[in-house]
Specification:
It is globular and about 65 Å long. Helix 6 links the parallel strand 10 and strand 11. The chain starts with a helix and ends with a helix. By secondary structure, the protein is α/β, with parallel strands linked by helices. It binds iron/sulfur cluster (2 copies). The site of one iron/sulfur cluster has 15 residues, from helix 13 and helix 14. One iron/sulfur cluster (SF4) binds next to helix 13 and helix 14.
Length: 461
């Protein structure tokens, strides 16, 4: 309970009544615009491989799960012991008030607490190794009361383990607690990476639940307008959301985003949907925006209305496999078992986790699905170009043409190679969203994005 009390105190402190800052009145909400930013690249989508069939729940059975306890400073402490029996939804990890709680994805016996590879993390993380008993038995879940205040909504999000499912894994409770009187709720339904279709299927199949959750959050936080951003290549998702939005009590609009990578990048999505500029290092809350990924909103809605913790997510299985599609998979489920479910060849092929632009190769064959794993591309060598040796810059400026943040990647790269921090600052390295558009277009195969990531780490250190 100490954690909950501390959290309450912190939330109260953060949410002291405030007057809207005067500059908020200057932040008009512009009409949504598909192309309010320049650059980006057109990529072959490969969406048709996996977007045609409904999401299928994975049967758990008597399998061993490794449920990650978070990553780095966003990790929680285990609160279970080896040998302990836990039921589905039981809390197995609690952290400080900056960290979302972790729950058992199914019922079974805790074998040990140990390091394990999460599919989308290069380094192993601490995990609860759980031998599922095959019963998939829930803890007792009395029907929860609805959160009545912003503070209780924040508390619900923290205790139900809700984190950003778009990839960042940032605790949603912190986002909600830091959202000081936002006037705009933006829901990111852009899935601009090739291959991913998990959010598309979620929007098509759960449009009413998404609108209900957005409506509730907006009403509770006093937000006047909600906009869902959905790319034009998802007409069914748009249509079902539009139909569901007619039932909303608050104003909800479904807005098209360009079918162009990286339309879902946070500053670009905000610019397209509101006309507001998110400065480097600023938070959406600073410009009156609460921005949530569509899968995060769905998980938050389950927590609000069903009292359900985040223990499973929709994941795309695609690439070179016999049964591509989307599955509802428990957190901690092994990739090796998903390989069999998808009918992919055994080991020896390149498995990409996430999309080809922002994702990474599977770090280890024993890796498991985490809350932020969105997609597995089996046999990725068939679709994605292998890394080529880098040549010299020929100053073609193609990287400049595609940079959606209007940066000069060739100059940034030269400054990074010289370790010239002043120039990196002048050239606005901090505005780079690491989308990789520049690297992918570069005829000399210069690993621009990787170098920028490295430079940011060096500067932070
Ligand atoms: S695209 Fe590559 S080769 Fe062309 S200017 Fe940029 S870094 Fe140089
Ligand atoms: S990785 Fe950075 S520099 Fe390169 S295109 Fe994207 S935002 Fe621009």
């Amino acid at each position: 309970m100490q954690n909950a009390e501390r959290m309450q105190g912190r939330i109260r402190a953060q949410r002291q009544p405030q007057h809207k800052p005067f500059w908020r009145r200057l932040l008009a909400i512009a009409s949504p615009s598909q192309r309010s930013w320049h650059g980006g690249i057109e990529l072959r989508g490969y969406k048709e491989l996996s977007n045609a069939t409904p999401v299928v729940p994975v049967a758990i059975g008597k399998i061993q799960l490794a449920i990650p306890l978070g990553r780095g400073r966003r990790s929680v402490q285990p609160c279970v012991q080896p040998g302990q029996h836990v039921r589905k939804g039981e809390v197995i990890g609690i952290g400080d008030d900056n960290t979302a709680w972790v729950h058992a994805s199914t019922s079974g016996i805790v074998e040990r607490i140990d390091l394990a590879f999460a599919a989308d993390s290069a380094e192993p993380v601490m995990a609860v190794i759980l031998n599922a008993d095959g019963l998939d038995e829930w803890i007792e879940r009395p029907v929860p009361g609805l959160p009545q205040t912003p503070e209780t909504l924040v508390e619900r999000a923290l205790q139900m383990g809700i984190v950003g499912l778009g990839g960042a894994g940032f605790p949603t409770a912190l986002k909600l607690a830091g959202a000081q009187q936002p006037d705009l709720l933006l829901i990111n339904g852009a899935e601009c990476e090739p291959f991913l279709t998990c959010d598309d299927r979620l929007m098509r199949e759960h449009a009413e639940a998404l609108i209900e959750a957005a409506d509730f959050v907006a009403a509770l936080l006093g937000i006047t307008l909600t906009r869902f951003g959905v790319e034009t290549n998802k007409p069914e998702a748009m249509a079902t959301l539009r139909a569901a939005a007619r039932q909303a009590r608050t104003r909800v609009e479904i807005c098209p985003l360009p079918e162009r990578y990286p339309a879902g990048g946070q500053p670009l999505m905000i610019k397209s949907l509101s006309g507001r500029n998110l400065a480097p290092g600023a938070r959406p809350a600073d410009i009156g925006v609460l921005a949530l990924n569509v899968a995060t909103l769905y998980a938050l809605g389950r927590a609000i209305f069903q009292g359900e913790p985040l223990i499973k997510r929709v994941l795309t299985l695609t690439g070179n496999c016999e049964r591509p599609g989307n599955v509802l998979v428990p957190v901690g489920y092994p990739v090796s078992a998903l390989r069999a479910i998808a009918g992919a060849a055994a080991e020896g092929q390149w498995t990409q986790v996430g999309g080809p632009m922002m994702g990474q190769p599977l770090p280890d064959p024993t890796a498991v699905i985490s809350k932020t794993s969105s997609c597995l591309i089996f046999g990725a060598e068939r679709y994605l170009p292998a890394t080529q040796p880098a040549g010299s810059c020929i100053r073609c400026t193609r990287c400049v043409d595609v940079c959606p943040m209007s940066l000069r990647p060739l100059d940034l790269y030269a400054a990074a190679e010289r370790l010239d921090k002043a120039s990196l600052q002048e050239l606005r390295l901090d505005a780079c969203i690491e989308c990789g558009s520049c690297s992918s277009i570069c005829p000399s195969n210069i690993p621009l994005r990787d170098r920028f990531r490295q430079s940011k780490t060096e500067i932070r250190a």
